[in-house]
């Protein structure tokens, strides 16, 4: 029985382990954290990723713990509409995206991997030719090593050298709140160099996210800063911030990766953020990791060269990452004339054009 060593026990790593297990491979997952957990944040799962989850055999479990995502569209800070979403058209063509807590998805994926295959508290120090992984408890050897160890991947460094992530120019906050009044729709608001969005989770809590232009590693990333920036924006944003708990606020600068020359080497492959970390503007980071897992396992099980995986995944993820980066750049404009121009263009763009633009991203099938 062939064996795969998966470095990283997050969404990308667990999905990869499941995909290979379903193909009859022995699996070993190495995770540096003492336990496999997820911080408190929401996650959009688009129809392309739902198809990947179905291929992994966990799609129905995921849907049972999620809520269909109904997006009204994008507004400005005063609540005026910039664009509206044709939800019926999206649902009819692509299927409905869902919103869930990241921890719930991780729980489902973790439960599908045998406990004997999960090795936590292990720090990987290097990868050598022949499928050998050196780590804090010795070595592990397999027929394939998969780097699912995030944007600062040790496996990627062994494969491609030192490739530094790029700062996007903006920072982000995430927080899950229990609002005093129920929220039934999700929405996003664009200001000048700032954005705020929210989506409803299955238990009625609301996942909020915000961005702001700032130098990397800027201080002042707590709830007070969120309220200062967004407390006078349109409803329900002030109420959501009023319901937030300081201890629940997560603050991270946004980075992505430059385009890699390859996702594979001899008996080594990269998935998820290790391969194509992208800005969150299309909500496709985790979705692309799930696609990676399914495709890599299919290619490996067929006995073909890993370059087939690279050829299938690298152009697609680069297209999506580039599009996400461009959307973020426009969404973070600060100049008043540019913001006014952006608003005018968005109001004039028909919903049908936005709908068609989703096709290259959402039309993916296993």
From TrEMBL:
Pfam families from the UniProt entry:
FAD_binding_3
The organism named in the record is Nocardia acididurans
Family annotation (Gene3D superfamilies)? FAD/NAD(P)-binding domain
Q: Name the domain of life.
A: Bacteria
The record, for SUPFAM superfamilies, names: FAD/NAD(P)-binding domain (SSF51905)
Q: Where is the FAD-binding domain?
A: 3-162, 264-317
Q: Which GO terms describe its molecular function?
A: monooxygenase activity
| Protein known as | FAD-dependent monooxygenase
This protein's UniProt keywords = Monooxygenase, Oxidoreductase
